[in-house]
Amino acid sequence: MWMNSSEHFTNSLQARGNILEEAFEVKDTMAQRFNLMPNAHVYTSLMKGLCERGDVDAAVRLKEEIAGKADLVLDSAVYATLVCELFRVRRKSEVVGLLEEMKGREIVADTVVYNAIIAVFCEDDKDPSAAFAVLEDMKKCGCKGVGVNTGFRLKNQGWKHLTHSKENKLGTQHVLQGLDLKSTPMKTARLFHPYLIPDTDTWYFLIPSSTGPRQGISCSIESNHFSRLRAITFQGMVMEEAMVSASHGAMGSLLGKLGELLTDKYKLFKEAKMEIRSLQSELQNMQAFLKDMSGTQNPSEQTKCWMSEVRELSYDIDDSVDEFMLRLEQESSSKPQGFRGFIERCLSLLTTVKARHQITKEFRGLKRLAEEVSERHKRYKVDDATSKQHDETIDPRMLALYTETARLVGIDRPRDELIQLMNEDDVSSQYLKVIAIFGFGGLGKTTLANEIFRKLEGEYHCRGFVVVSQKPNIWKILRKILSQVGYAAPENTDMEIWDVDDLVNALRNFLTGKRYFIVIDDIWNATTWTVISCAFPDNKNGSRVIATTRIETVATACCSNQYQYVYKMKALGTEDSRRLFFKRVFGSDDTCPSYLEEVSNIILKRCGGLPLAIITVSSHLATQGNKLNKEQWEETLDSLGSNLELNPTLEGMRQVLNLSYTSLPHCLKTCVLYLGMYPEDHTISKNDLVRQWVAQGFVSKAIGRDPEDIALGYFNEIVNRSIVQPAYTDSNDDVLSCRVHDMMLDLIIHKCREENFMTATDDIEEISGMLKNVRRLSLYSNGVIDGKSHGSIQLSHVRAFTRFGTSTYIPPLVEFKHLRVLNLEFSARNRGQIPIDLTGISCLFQLRYLKVVTWNQIELPSKISRFQQLETLEIDASKVEIPSDIAHLRRLLHLIIDGGLSLPKGIGNMKSLRTFRFSLLFMSSTDTIIEIGDLTNLRDLQLRFYRQRQSGDEAARQLMHALRSSLEKLCNLRYLRIRHDGCLDELSSLSTTPLLLRKFVTQSGWHSRIPMWIGKLYNLYHLQLFVKEVLGHDIRILAQLPSLTSLHMTIRATPKENMVICRTGFSVLKHLDIGCSRMSRLIFESGAMPKLQMLEIHFNASGWDRHGAAPTGMEHLSSLKEISVQIGGRGAKESSREAAQSMLRKAIDLHPGRPMAKIRCIDGLCIEFDDFVMEEVQSPLMLLWKCNHVVPLTHHINQESRDAPLNVADIRNQGLIVSTLWTWKSIYG
To answer: Residue 1070: which of 994, 1122, 997, 1012 has the closest Cα?
Structure first.
């Protein structure tokens, strides 16, 4: 019956929208009463009906029902139906999991499934390497229908993927039709981010399409072409305006909300809508004026005053609109449904009408305020005074060209390094070589380039030195180069009528056959370089060009991506800074009076090794009548603060720093000003910064792009432009944290004060008299100010509040009505004092970001489900109780808890989570671990387990089994970190591999062997793990990982065979950290690890004099720059210690590159090896440790150690490693 009627069943289901429930009833009735089972076609039809209705979860359950029936076979059509719907409802992370499930059931996926997965990687994840991996998998599985040039469309999400081939060159047949990169580089300005496909010549671009959705294209492209592509300016990115910015205030956010209020969702009266439209029109005109004026370099005081008034107005109205929208939403959500709801709605009708009339009245008042501001604009004729005249100032960078060599300090080493780079004798020495110098403004790039120019100019036929600047005149630059190299125009030739092409051709022809040396100073964009560089022929005469810039991508573009020719300027060291400072002040570097030492040290610290700052301040002091007057020095120190722009002596330095800021697009200016929320010398986390930018609305919107991904691009661009200094960079060259130079921070704070963007202080009472509302407030104080009043300051308009320092004083949180960001970072000095009460945040409905770092206990509100805007919740405290309703935070993206005692049930409902870190999970947390498997959007998972006294091995095994089951569902993971003091072999056999994993770290726990699935992680760049045993096959698994740049591996057992590192593996590894009891088993063949720069070795010295030997072949590591050796001396004889150090030193000395070496012998144990043999018994405590006699040992610790670090390096009890009694007690009670 089912076979005969399935077609009619399908047609009826498609024809009638309400037949779906009846269809399910028929299916169940026929099966139960007549024992007639539906076939796969019927199930597919039912599933399609569920998908069309939007009930994807029910469709997934139906698929599982099919899988449970022995007489039915799941096919690709069932999965294709599910894939299309998951793609439509943006649950794309689950699509990848379906592909792995199909493989497990030996079902060959069709084109629709594969295309959907490729679109997920290309559109949402911007991960072309994963997309190409899927494409390769598609070919291997024999899926038909996708060739080299294949376009497809899924639910209005169009993508075109052109796979890599030799013939697939960048030409007229593709999307980039007519693009000639050599002659028209400006046409590339519309391109989006390029990506390199690993181990290929393929670059991937996202390109805005004029006729449809954005498309992707990959193509083979020569490196010199790509150098022009990757130098695309940041301003070329097509984006909407940011919601909130320093120049436009909250205008973008406000106009969007006004438009939303006009929709039917809020059911406003006609009169209210008319007032809103009128207000909207007025504000749009103001916004247009702000946009025009924000690009003006020097607006008049009148214009600046009016712009400030408009910004303040936008913030105030935005706050009011937030209150309206919250009031209306609460009113809507509080109404019950059904008959009772009808009665209550009738009773509240009069009240509702009155409230909505009140809203109309309030909007009328807001419109009146806007009109008053507009009237002042007309009254004072602001348009007629948009700019003010400034006296001409001397560019301080020009002074660097005329500095005498004898007065320079700290320049010898970089000068000699660059000269060596220019003159190195290799195959390419006769070709044109371009060397780029980049770094922060004021580091001395121009001075360095000029010094090299002076030293080498006599070795070249033609020489030239030109300065470019931010807004270059290419014609004048080329004319100047022609003049300097000695070009003479033909007689009766008027060069004034030449265009740029004529100048380029003339210069190129003149330099052909000559050996030339030209310096192009201060380049701000790659387009400028592209044009100028066309005039430099490669005539194989050993010509050289030096380019200086503040922007790293411009530097790499100048060198055609030959990174070995990019030279990064560094700040002066402490000694060179002192020499330069005192030499300028006193004429000698050793004549500073002792009573000026302290203040001079503080001045030098603020200068931060910046030569320009040191020269400016020291020159000022040198010109004072009494330069030995301490008060004069202290006044100078005070002027280096936020009064930077008020001191005429520091004008030159201000100009140089200001150039970096003024060159930024508006969205980046806003993000840079937000750095003023952090105190001096603070290390700023990239993730924290990015999440706060998003929470504040600073990030522009772009179709198909995630706001956090855009914000990451902002951060990288700020680093690229040398606005901030990288503090920590991982092996993948990703900057994870940064610092702001003190001088730049001073400039930022001044700009913030000028635009009332942010207020920073160490005493809240100092700002209580401010005339303007405080929009963002940062308190950083180490003084005791607890209990102080915040005076007359209005906290209700504060949108971001940060607190740093030792004092735990917090203004009343209930007053921060419109707070978006709350960041409290207290130092460790208050450990164990009164708990920090955060219950006052319960009324902060706009809160999007909450981070608290403290040693104290934290008290949160008992209920936090009302924070429906919250995106980040990060708590790092000694103790915190997580509210039971946390699972209702459906928009939460990042949940990071350190100090929580337990997690409530329901974590699996938080489908939006991307980051989940929890630091105190006990062996009884199996239910929570199972729920983690439902968080399919997770990208970052970090868990830390503790073994309780009553927990046995079986509980640990069950926990790891649950974790394995969850990991098999998390296909979007990028970062996985597990800390567990036991065996991790349950994780060694994942049925589904998290293919997108980039970092995998295990701590304390160990694997018996390296898990096989690690060999499939083509995106993995950082790996840290403990293993019991490593064989040759395991080494080969790791060696073939194409992206691995950092490997940290500890081998517990003595290797049974040699660990040979061949020349064919570890092609990009930069950092190797290895611990092993027999280092003699480690062998590096010639050509092995060609990119390795850092080698760390850990071993114990016990028995070294009998069977120890250094690793073989370290001299073959051609790129090695640094070696660090740590030798555990606990239980070893002195002869073993000496033998270990001597052999390692001799092996290192064989390296031809003379890498920096550090060999250190410690009293404890480096690693707890399974076969450790103690040569000398040094204490009864060690005897107890070796015998694993825990009870007497802990008694001994309690008597002698208490809270101090133990004398032993590690304590072992069933694999547990601890280092302090505090940790021991937290585990065992």
So the answer is: 1122
Token reading at 519: 């310096």
Highest mean pLDDT among 181-195, 917-931, 972-986: 972-986
The reported pLDDT for the residue numbered 223 is: 32
pLDDT tens digits, 8-61: 444 444 444 456 767 777 777 666 666 667 776 777 778 777 777 767 777 777
Q: Which domain holds residue 690?
A: 658-755
DSSP labels for 283-319?
HHHHHHHHHHHHT-SS--HHHHHHHHHHHHHHHHHHH
CA proximity to 707, closest of 258, 248, 243: 243
- List, for residues 1010-1033, the tens digit of each pLDDT value: 999 999 999 999 999 999 989 888
Total number of domains in the chain: 6
| Under 8 Å between Cβ of 155 and 124 | no
Q: What is the pLDDT of residues 1112-1155, one digit of tens each?
A: 999 999 999 999 999 887 777 888 888 888 888 999 999 998 99
Question: How many angstroms separate the CA atoms of 200 and 1011, rounded?
Answer: 27
Q: Which residues contact 1105 (CB under 8 A, 6 or more apart)?
A: 1133, 1135, 1136, 1139
- Among 755, 783, 815, identify where a domain stops: 755
Of 160 and 539, the structure prediction assigns the larger pLDDT to: 539
- The segment with the largest mean pLDDT, out of 262-266, 442-446, 507-511, 951-955, is 507-511
* Average pLDDT taken over every residue of the chain: 75
Q: In what helix (H) or strand (E) does residue 776 lie, and over which residues does it extend?
A: strand 776-780
Give the DSSP H or E segment for 272. helix 270-294
Q: Read off the pLDDT band of 966 (50, 70, 90).
A: very high
Ramachandran area for residue 459 (φ above 0: left; ψ -120 to 50: alpha; else beta): alpha
Rounded to 10°, the helix 597-607/742-755 angle is: 70
| pLDDT higher than 70, residue 438 | yes
- Contact in structure between 122 and 187 (CB atoms under 8 Å): no
3-state secondary structure of 243: coil
Domain-located, residue 735? yes
Which of 800-809, 985-994, 1199-1208 has the least mean pLDDT? Answer: 1199-1208
Chain center to CA of 1156: 30
- At residue 724, the 3 state secondary structure works out as coil
Which of 941, 949, 948, 898 minimizes the C-alpha distance to 923?
A: 948
**783 CB-near residues (< 8 Å, 6+ apart):** 762, 763, 805, 807
Q: CA–CA separation, 892 vs 883, rounded Å?
A: 14
Q: Is 1171 helix (H, G, I), strand (E, B) or coil?
A: coil
- Rounded CA-CA distance 1107/60 in Å is 61
Distance CA 407, CA 391 (A): 30
Range 873-883 average pLDDT: 88
Angle, in degrees to the nearest 10, between helices 597-607 and 630-639: 20
**pTM of the prediction?**
0.73
Here the tokens at position 1218 are 């601890």
Together in a domain, 511 and 633: no
| Mean pLDDT of all residues in 824-838 | 76
Could you tell me the maximum CA-CA distance found in the chain, to the nearest angstrom? 110
> Residue 648 corresponds to which tokens in the numbers above?
């005429």
In a shared domain, residues 590 and 679:
no
Residue 1022 belongs to some domain of the structure: no
Map residue 877 onto helix, strand or coil.
strand
Same domain, 602 and 685: no
3-state secondary structure of 398: helix
Q: What is the DSSP pairing of strand 202-207 with strand 215-220? A: antiparallel
CA distances from 297 to 303, 387, 971 (A): 12, 8, 49
Average pLDDT value for residue range 642-662: 71
Q: Are residues 1119 and 1193 in the same domain?
A: no
Give the Cβ contact number of residue 956 at 10 Å. 22
> Residue 970's Cα: distance from chain center in Å?
21
